[in-house]
Amino acid sequence: MNATSPDDLDNAAIAHRLRILRHLVSGGGQGSRAQFAARIGIEYKRWNNFERGFPLPRGMAIHLVRAIDGLTLDWIYLGRQDGMSMRLQRELEEAGKAVTLSERRGASGSSRKPVTKSRA
């Protein structure tokens, strides 16, 4: 059984798990939020807000569980993997690593072009 920390209950942690979910469902690519939202039947603006950390209503979480085979409310809200297949657990862990790496790259600015100053 996984231990649940208080940090897992915050909207930022839920938003991170939603980004992981999008990454997984999009086939490991950089699937856009709009494409993912359309695929699971959610308005893009709503999905975008959830990924940005706005509170995820229970009804929307239930919609996700119904739309994505094997997903649980415990994983969405608490990050707990018990009750999910081993395959889905592994897939979410791999997707989580990829998303975390991508977010770190974005935060460090490594994807930006270097700024050069011209000497006049």
Top keywords for this entry?
434 Repressor (Amino-terminal Domain); disordered C terminus; 120 residues; mainly alpha; 58% helix
- Would you tell me the structural class of the helices and strands? mainly alpha
Q: What's the level 1 CATH class?
A: Mainly Alpha
CATH architecture: Orthogonal Bundle
Enter the CATH topology name: 434 Repressor (Amino-terminal Domain)
- The radius of gyration computed from the alpha-carbon positions, rounded to a whole number of angstroms, is 16 Å
The tally of beta strands, per DSSP, is 0
Largest sheet: none
Number of domain units: 1
The helix count comes to 6
Written account of the structure:
This protein is mostly helical. It has one domain (7-108): 434 Repressor (Amino-terminal Domain). 58% of the residues lie in helices and 0% in strands. The chain has six helices and no strands. It has helices spanning 11-25, 33-40, 44-51, 58-67, 73-78, 86-108. Helix 1 packs across helix 6 and helix 2 packs across helix 3. The longest helix is centred in the last third of the chain and has 23 residues, at 86-108. The N and C termini lie far apart (64 Å).
